[in-house]
Write a structure and sequence with these properties.
Length: about 160
């Protein structure tokens, strides 16, 4: 693996590769790792460097013209090699079937794939995340005698969520 700072290259330099992955966060690096040992030349393009830099991080300074964004972008998104993995706590769960469906009340909802189409990839994703084998086995919760916390539907309303910020 080699690291190049594009700011140190000539303006008219040409970079050729078989596959360019934009972003070196958990998803980008997982995809790159899939090609390890293959004949595919992979370039991972990250807007930040190996250390946190104020000038690239300032690209997250945004102005919102709709509802206010209460989340500080600086604390949740990083333009650095490894991306958000530097602040990610490791919490993850697979999407439910409905997450892939178009819903009239959710703008831009619906995916061009279904949950069953990605199920075969979940085990491999679990290995990358250090979750161990069979991490997405739906029968695992009862075996661990764990119970799911009740979902508070009263907090799921967009009106109430907006008033809580």
């Amino acid at each position: 693996m080699s690291f190049f700072d594009l700011r140190q290259m000539d303006e008219n330099s040409l970079i050729e590769t078989d596959l360019c992955i934009v972003g070196s966060g958990p998803a980008g690096l997982s995809i790159a790792k899939e090609f390890e040992g293959s004949n595919i030349e992979v370039l991972v393009l990250e807007s930040g460097g190996l250390d946190k830099e104020a000038d690239t991080q300032s690209l997250y300074d945004i102005e919102n013209t709709g509802a206010p964004i209460p989340l500080d972008q600086e604390s949740s998104r990083l333009r650095i090699y490894g991306g958000t993995s530097h602040v990610w706590t490791g919490r993850c769960a697979p999407f439910d079937d409905i997450d892939f469906e178009q819903r009239s009340w959710v703008a831009y909802s619906g995916w061009p794939i279904t949950r069953p189409e990605i199920d075969s990839h979940l085990e491999r994703a679990g290995v990358y995340l250090g979750l161990g084998p069979h991490c997405y086995d739906e029968n695992l919760w009862p075996k661990l005698k764990a119970r799911l916390l009740p979902f508070l539907y009263s907090l799921a309303s967009t009106n109430q969520a907006a008033s809580m910020v």
